[in-house]
Design goal:
The complex is a heterotetramer.
Chain B lengths: L2 H18 L7 H38 L5 H11 L10 H32 L5 E3 L3 E3 L10 H17 L9 H41 L8 H19 L10
Antiparallel strand pairs in B: 1-2
Chain C lengths: L1 H21 L24 E4 L7 E6 L10 E8 L10 E7 L22 E6 L12 E9 L2 E4 L3 E3 L11 H23 L8 H16 L3 E4 L8 H20 L3 E5 L2 H17 L11 E3 L4 H15 L3 E5 L5 H11 L3 E6 L5 H7 L2 E4 L2 H10 L2 H34 L4 H5 L7
Parallel strand pairs in C: 9-10, 9-12, 10-11, 12-13, 13-14
Antiparallel strand pairs in C: 1-2, 2-5, 3-4, 3-6, 6-7, 6-8
Chain D lengths: L2 H6 L3 H17 L10 H12 L5 E7 L5 H17 L3 E6 L5 H15 L7 E6 L4 H9 L1 H4 L26 E6 L5 H12 L2 E6 L4 H9 L6 E3 H12 L4 H41 L1
Parallel strand pairs in D: 1-2, 1-4, 2-3, 4-5, 5-6
Classes of the chains: A mainly alpha, B mainly alpha, C alpha/beta, D alpha/beta.
C-alpha cells in the first residue's frame, strides 16, 4: 500500500520528468507528436483542476449560509450571481456574442464583469499615490536612489514631463534599457537557476511537498 | 439606443461607484459589489471551461473523430477529484505527479535556453567595437544600448546583483563594496518599476473615469450623476447610523 | 546510433579546431572583374546532405565561394526528385539570391556542428517554401550561378532528407543541465555531511524586533503566506519562517493571526504552528483557530485582511510568499495602522511596493535563504549552496567571455568563438 | 504637533481626492501634448510595416478586463495597422476572462475596416492549458483550436490556407498582462518555432521585459498606455490612449509634487529634531 501511495507517484514524476526534459533535444517528429498529445492532455486536465478550486469556494460559502454566519447575506449574493452567470452562459452557448450581436452572457460580461474587475484594479491608482507620498522619503542613500529613479521614470513616461524637462525622456529610456535591464537580467538568471534546481529535485523525488503535506 | 445598453450603463456605473466607495471606507455597498464580482467571474470561468474543455476538447474529438486516447487525460483529471473522498484521496497524487513531472521536465531545458544561455549571450559582448574607417573604438553613446559604455555598465550591474544574492559567502571586504553596488542597482530598478507602475495604475483609473464620463450622457439618462448622488447619500446615511463606521464582520 | 553521433561530433570538433587555428583568412581572395567573363564557371565542390539535427523534410547544400561572388551575380538552387537528372534545364529553381549571401559563417551553427568552413556557401531547403521535401525520398540537387544571360550549372548531387534523433546544436544546453544538476546533488550531499556556512540575513533580526514590540504594545501579530499553494517554493519558505515567528510569539505570549487563501496551506501551517508552540514549551497557549481560511479570491481576501488590520490593529504585519496586485492594498492599509511591516517575496513585479512601504523586505532569493537558514535542512541549504556555485560559474563565464570577445575584436581572430559558442543559445 | 508633522500624517483620503481630480479634469478638458516615439514601439510598427500583403499576423490578446484600459487601445491600433496592411490576422487569447473582450475588439475593428471573418481574419477564442496551448499550436494549429470562436471548424478556413502550425506565422504579437503572456510566447513559441515576436504589456510588466528586448528575444515592446499612445500616433489614428495621456501627465506631476513635498516636510522635521537634540545636549 505504501508503495502504491508513495513510490508510484514519485516514479511517475521521475519518468515523465526525464522523458519531457529529453524531448527538447530530440527533433524527430515522433517526439514532437508526443509533446503535442501530452500538452493537449494538460489542457484537459487543467479543466479538471478548476473543478477543485470552484468546489472549495462553493463549500466555504455554503457553510457560511447554512450557519447563518455574520455577513452570510453577501455569500448569498455570491452564490446567486455565480449560478445566474452559469445559467445565462449555458443558455447563450458560452458565447458573449454570436455574429456580432451581444448575448445575455455578453451583457453580464460587458456591464458587470468588465467594470467590476477594472475598478478593483483602478483603486490601486489611489493607493500607489498615497504610498508614494508616505514612503518616498530620502531616509538613506538607497531610499534616495530609488526615489530619484522613480521620479525620473515618472517624468520621462508622460508628454508633460518630457515637455518640462526634455532630457527626462532619454534618461528614463536609459534607466529602463540599461540599468533596469541589467538588474532584471541578474534576477532572471538567479531565479532560473532556482527553477532548474527545483525541477531537478522534484524529478528525483527530493522535493515532494507538491504531493500535499508530508504525512499519510 | 437599445434598452439593454441603457440598463447596462446604469449597472456598470453603479458597480463602479460602489467599488470606488471603498476609498472612503469599507462599507456594505463595496461588499455587495465585491461578492457580485467574485460570483460573476467564477461563473464566467466555469461556463468558458465547460464550453472549451468538455465540449470542444473532449466531447467533440471523441464523438466526432473517435480520438479515444483523450480518455487518458479525462481519467487523470478524474483522479484529481478523488481529493474529496478521504479514503481514495491518495489517488489524486498520481494526477499531481504527472502534471508536476511534465511541468518540471519541460521547464529545465527551456529555462536554460531562454533565461540563462540567451541572457549570458547578450551580456558577453566585446568592450571595443570595430568601426569601419576608424578602427577600434570605445563608444560612449549612452542612448545606444549596445555601446561599449553601456556594455560595461550592464556587466557591472549583472555581476554585482548576482553577487548580492550569494548566500554562502560573507559580504565583507571587497565583497561588501560589490554587494552595496548591487543594492544600488536593485534600488534603481525598483524605482524605475515603481514609476512605470504608477503609469499602469493611473491608466486603469483613466479607463474607468472615461467610462463614467461617457455615462453622464443624456442618451443613457445620466446614470453617472444620479448614481454618484445616491452612493454619497447612502454612505452619509450609513455613517450616521453607525458612528463608529466599522461594521462588525468576523474573519 | 549514439556512438556514431559521438564520433561524428568529435571529428567535427577536431576539424573545427583545425580550421580555427588556420585563422579563417581564406575568404580574402582576389576579386576578378566579373564583367569581362563570357561564361560563368559552375559553382565548385557542391555537396548536399540531410540537414543535421532537425525533424526531417530538409536538405542543406554547401559549395565553395567563387571569384564572381558579388551582389550582381545570383545563385540558384535547383531540385528534382530521383537519382538521375535527364535534363539540367528542367530542374526546378527552388531558391535564388545574390551571390554574396548565404555563407556558413552567417548560419547559426556552433563550431561543433558546422558542416564546412565559414567562407563556404550554404543553403538550407525546407518543406513548404518552394516545394515539398519528403523524408526518405532521394533528391537531386545542384547550384547554378547566374549573371545576366550566363548560367553555370554544377553537376547535381544526391541527398535524402530524414528526421534525426538528436539535436547536436543544443548539446551545450544538455551539458549545462547535467553539470548544474550534478552541482546541486553534490552540494546537497555535502550539506548532509557537514555544516555549510550561510550568511546571516539581516531581515531575520527585524523579525525578532517586531515581535518584541508587539508584545510591549500587547497587540497581535499578522502573518500572511502569500497567494500560491504549497507547491510553490515561496509558500514553503513562508511556512518555514512562520515556524520561527510562531516560536517567538509563543515565548512572548503574543497573539498570532494567520489568514489563509489555500486550505491545504492552512492545514500545513496549523501543524507548523502547533509544533512551534510545543518547542517553545507553551503548548497550552496554542490556538487551533489562529490559522484560518478566508477565501481563495484575490480581492475578497484582500478586503477581508484589510478589515482585520483596521479592526485588530496588529503591531506587526508579515507578508511572506508570492503576491500580486493586492500587495500594495495590503501594505498601504497596514502602514496606515502604524504597524511594523516585514515582507519577503520572490514576486519581482511587487518588490518595488514592498521595498517602499515595508520596514524591511527580504528580496527575491533572500526569502529562500532565510528559510534555509532557519530550517537548516540539508536539502534546502545544499540547494542554496548549489545555486551559489552556479552563479559563481556564470559570473566567471561573463568575465572570461567579455575578455575573450574583446580580444577577438582587437586581434581580429576567431578562436575566442570556440569558448563563446559554448554559451550561446543555438537551435 | 508641528505643521510638517501634521502634513506628513495627512489623511490619505485627501491624496485620493487630489489624484481623482487630476485625472478627471484633463479628461474633461484635454490639452493634447505631443507624444515622442520610442524605439521599442517603433520596433513593432516597423516590422508590421515591412511585412508584405497576405503575411500571417498572429495577435494573442493575453489579458483580462482588469488591464483593459492599457491593452485594449494597443490591440485596436495593432489590428487597424494589420488590416490596413492587408495581413491575414489570426487572433486568440490565453486568458479565459479576456475572451469576450478580445472578440469584441476584433469584430469591431474588422467591421470598421471592412474585413470578413474567415476570409481576412479569424478569432480562435480561448483554449485552456496556458503555455501548453502554445506548444500545441506549434505542432498543429487545428489540434489546439479545432473550431474558431463562432464554432466554425478551423480546417478549410480561407484565411488559414497554407498554415499548419506556428512555423507558418510571419509575425506574432502577444499583448500580455501577466502569465501566460509575452514570456510564455517566447519560451514555448518563438524559441522553437522561429517566428518573429513582438510584445505589448501593461506598465507593471514592462520593466521586467527589457532584458528580453535587449537580447532580441522580442523585437519590440509596447509598454502600457504610453506605448499605446505612441502606436496611435504612428498609425495616425487618435484613440483612447492619446486622450488619456494628458490625464496621465497630470497625475504623474501631482505625484511628483507630492513626493517633493513629503521630502521637504521630512527634512524640515529632521532638522528640527537635530536642533532639539543639540539644545538638549
Amino acid at each position: 500500500m505504501i508503495f502504491l501511495r508513495r513510490q508510484v507517484p514519485l516514479l511517475i514524476t521521475l519518468i515523465t520528468g526525464l522523458v519531457f526534459a529529453a524531448q527538447y533535444y530530440v527533433p524527430h517528429p515522433a517526439s514532437e507528436q508526443m509533446l503535442t498529445s501530452v500538452t493537449k492532455w494538460l489542457q484537459i486536465i487543467g479543466g479538471f483542476a478548476l473543478v477543485l478550486g470552484v468546489s472549495s469556494l462553493f463549500h466555504v460559502h455554503a457553510m457560511k449560509i447554512r450557519r447563518k454566519e455574520a455577513g452570510w447575506g453577501y455569500s448569498f449574493v455570491l452564490y446567486v450571481s455565480m449560478l445566474g452567470t452559469i445559467a445565462v452562459g449555458l443558455w447563450s452557448n458560452g458565447k458573449e456574442a454570436i455574429d456580432g450581436t451581444m448575448t445575455a452572457f455578453g451583457w453580464i460580461y460587458n456591464f458587470m464583469m468588465v467594470p467590476l474587475q477594472g475598478t478593483m484594479f483602478a483603486i490601486l491608482a489611489f493607493f500607489i499615490a498615497s504610498a508614494a507620498y508616505r514612503s518616498f522619503r530620502a531616509r538613506s542613500r538607497e531610499a534616495a536612489v530609488l526615489l530619484i529613479a522613480a521620479v525620473i521614470v515618472m517624468m520621462g513616461r508622460v508628454p508633460l514631463g518630457e515637455y518640462l524637462i526634455p532630457l527626462s525622456g532619454d534618461l528614463s529610456q536609459w534607466i529602463l534599457n540599461v540599468l533596469n535591464a541589467s538588474v532584471r537580467r541578474a534576477i532572471l538568471i538567479g531565479v532560473s537557476l532556482g527553477t532548474v534546481a527545483l525541477s531537478i529535485k522534484i524529478i528525483f523525488g527530493m522535493e515532494r511537498s507538491y504531493l500535499g503535506g508530508g504525512k499519510e | 439606443m437599445p434598452v439593454e445598453t441603457i440598463i447596462g450603463a446604469w449597472v456598470a456605473t453603479g458597480l463602479t461607484l460602489f467599488i470606488f466607495s471603498f476609498l472612503y471606507k469599507d462599507n456594505p455597498l463595496f461588499k455587495l459589489a465585491e461578492n457580485l464580482y467574485v460570483g460573476v467571474s467564477v461563473g464566467y470561468t466555469i461556463v468558458k471551461t465547460y464550453d472549451t474543455v468538455i465540449v470542444h476538447l473532449i466531447w467533440k474529438p471523441i464523438v466526432e473523430n473517435g480520438e479515444w486516447a483523450l480518455l487518458i487525460p479525462v481519467a487523470i483529471g478524474t483522479l484529481m477529484l478523488t481529493r474529496y473522498v478521504p479514503k481514495a484521496a491518495w489517488l489524486s497524487r498520481y494526477a499531481f505527479a504527472f502534471i508536476v513531472g511534465v511541468g518540471s521536465g519541460l521547464a529545465i531545458p527551456r529555462v536554460i535556453s531562454s533565461y540563462i544561455l540567451k541572457q549570458i549571450e547578450d551580456t558577453v559582448r566585446p568592450l571595443m567595437v570595430m568601426v569601419p574607417g576608424e578602427g577600434l573604438t570605445f563608444t560612449m553613446n549612452l542612448l545606444n544600448p549596445a555601446s561599449s559604455l553601456n556594455t560595461i555598465i550592464i556587466l557591472i550591474g549583472v555581476s554585482s546583483v548576482l553577487f548580492y544574492f550569494f548566500f554562502s559567502v560573507e559580504h565583507t571586504g571587497p565583497g561588501k563594496a560589490v554587494a552595496r553596488t548591487g543594492i544600488l542597482f536593485l534600488m534603481i530598478a525598483f524605482g524605475a518599476a515603481f514609476g512605470y507602475t504608477v503609469m499602469a495604475r493611473m491608466s486603469l483609473l483613466i479607463g474607468r473615469l472615461t467610462d463614467l464620463i461617457e455615462f453622464t450622457d443624456p442618451s443613457y439618462g445620466r446614470p453617472s450623476l444620479w448614481l454618484l448622488g445616491l452612493t454619497i447619500l447612502t454612505l452619509v446615511v450609513m455613517g450616521r447610523r453607525r458612528p463608529q463606521g466599522e461594521p462588525p464582520e468576523p474573519h | 546510433m549514439k556512438a556514431q553521433g559521438l564520433r561524428q561530433y568529435i571529428t567535427r570538433a577536431v576539424l573545427a579546431l583545425a580550421i580555427v587555428m588556420l585563422g579563417w583568412h581564406g575568404s580574402a581572395q582576389a576579386q576578378t572583374d566579373v564583367q569581362t567573363k563570357k561564361t560563368l564557371s559552375p559553382p565548385q565542390d557542391v555537396r548536399a546532405f540531410d540537414t543535421p539535427s532537425d525533424g526531417g523534410s530538409s536538405l542543406t547544400v554547401i559549395w565553395s565561394p567563387a571569384p564572381y561572388d558579388s551582389a550582381a551575380t545570383r545563385y540558384q538552387i535547383l531540385l528534382s526528385e530521383g537519382t538521375t537528372v535527364p535534363d539540367l534545364a528542367a530542374m526546378k529553381v527552388v531558391a535564388e539570391f545574390p551571390a554574396n549571401q548565404h555563407y556558413v559563417r552567417e548560419s547559426k551553427w556552433p563550431w561543433w556542428t558546422r558542416p564546412a568552413t565559414g567562407e563556404q556557401h550554404q543553403y538550407t531547403l525546407r518543406n513548404g517554401k518552394g516545394g515539398e521535401l519528403k523524408d526518405g525520398t532521394v533528391y537531386s540537387i545542384t547550384v547554378a550561378a547566374v549573371l545576366n544571360d550566363d548560367r553555370g550549372i554544377a553537376t547535381p548531387v544526391q541527398a535524402t532528407p530524414q528526421p534525426n534523433w538528436m539535436n547536436w546544436n543544443q548539446v551545450n544546453n544538455l551539458l549545462l543541465a547535467l553539470l548544474f544538476g550534478g552541482i546541486v546533488f553534490y552540494s546537497i550531499s555535502t550539506a548532509r555531511k557537514r555544516e555549510i556556512f550561510l550568511r546571516r540575513i539581516p531581515g531575520l533580526d527585524a523579525v525578532d524586533e517586531a515581535i518584541g514590540r508587539a508584545t510591549e504594545l500587547g497587540k497581535p501579530i499578522l502573518y500572511l503566506t502569500g497567494a500560491h499553494d504549497m507547491s510553490d517554493p515561496s509558500t514553503i519558505a513562508a511556512a518555514v519562517i512562520l515556524g520561527r515567528v510562531a516560536k517567538r510569539t509563543a515565548a512572548y505570549e503574543t497573539d498570532l493571526l494567520v489568514p489563509h487563501r489555500d486550505p491545504i496551506t492552512m492545514a500545513v501551517c496549523q501543524e507548523i504552528t502547533k509544533q512551534a508552540y510545543l518547542e517553545a514549551g507553551k503548548p497550552d497557549l496554542y490556538k487551533e483557530d489562529s490559522n484560518f481560511f478566508i477565501t481563495s479570491d484575490q480581492f475578497s481576501y484582500t478586503a477581508a485582511v484589510d478589515g482585520i488590520m483596521l479592526r485588530k490593529k496588529p503591531a506587526a504585519n508579515f507578508f511572506m510568499g508570492a503576491y500580486f496586485a493586492e500587495a500594495l492594498l495590503l501594505t498601504e492599509t497596514g502602514a496606515s495602522t502604524g504597524a511594523i511591516q516585514i515582507a519577503g517575496t520572490d514576486s519581482d513585479h511587487q518588490l518595488p511596493f514592498f521595498v517602499t512601504t515595508c520596514d524591511y523586505t527580504l528580496i527575491g532569493e533572500e526569502l529562500y535563504a532565510a528559510s534555509a537558514y532557519l530550517s537548516r535542512e540539508p536539502v534546502q541549504v545544499g540547494t542554496l549552496r548549489g545555486q551559489d556555485i552556479g552563479k559563481a560559474l556564470i559570473l566567471g563565464i561573463l568575465g572570461v567571455g567579455t575578455i575573450l570577445a574583446t580580444l577577438g575584436v582587437m586581434l581580429d581572430v576567431q578562436w575566442p568563438q570556440l569558448f563563446l559558442d559554448v554559451f550561446k543559445d543555438v537551435k | 504637533m508641528s505643521f510638517a508633522e501634521r502634513m506628513l500624517k495627512i489623511d490619505r483620503r485627501i491624496i485620493f481626492l487630489v489624484i481623482g481630480l487630476c485625472t478627471l479634469f484633463p479628461l474633461l478638458y484635454p490639452v493634447g501634448l505631443p507624444i515622442k516615439i520610442s524605439p521599442e514601439v517603433r520596433g513593432v510598427y516597423d516590422y508590421i510595416e515591412s511585412l508584405p500583403e497576405g503575411s500571417v499576423f498572429l495577435l494573442s490578446l493575453d489579458f483580462d478586463p482588469a488591464s483593459k484600459p492599457e491593452l485594449y487601445p494597443q490591440s485596436i491600433s495593432l489590428l487597424r495597422h494589420a488590416f490596413r496592411k492587408n495581413l491575414r490576422v489570426i487572433a486568440m487569447t490565453l486568458w479565459v476572462s479576456g475572451t469576450g473582450m478580445a472578440d469584441q475588439v476584433i469584430t469591431q475593428v474588422a467591421r470598421e475596416m471592412g474585413k470578413e471573418s474567415g476570409k481576412d481574419y479569424v478569432f480562435l477564442g480561448w483554449s485552456p492549458g496556458g503555455s501548453a496551448v502554445i506548444i500545441n499550436m506549434g505542432q498543429d494549429l487545428y489540434g489546439a483550436f479545432p473550431a474558431d470562436y463562432n464554432g466554425k471548424p478551423t480546417k478549410g478556413l480561407p484565411v488559414l490556407q497554407g498554415i499548419t502550425n506556428l512555423r507558418d506565422v510571419n509575425y506574432a504579437v502577444s499583448l500580455g498582462a501577466g502569465n501566460p503572456g509575452v514570456e510564455a510566447w517566447y519560451v514555448f513559441g518563438k524559441d522553437k518555432y522561429k517566428f518573429e515576436l513582438g510584445g505589448g504589456c501593461t506598465g507593471v510588466m514592462a520593466p521586467g521585459l527589457y532584458p528580453l528586448l535587449r537580447s532580441g528575444q522580442i523585437n519590440g515592446l509596447i509598454g502600457g498606455l504610453r506605448g499605446a499612445a505612441e502606436y496611435e500616433t504612428l498609425i495616425g489614428q487618435k484613440g483612447r490612449a492619446i486622450a488619456g495621456m494628458d490625464a496621465q501627465s497630470a497625475t504623474h506631476l501631482a505625484i511628483i509634487v507630492l513626493v517633493i513635498m513629503c521630502n521637504l516636510f521630512y527634512f524640515s522635521l529632521r532638522k528640527q529634531a537635530k536642533q532639539q537634540g543639540h539644545s538638549g545636549a
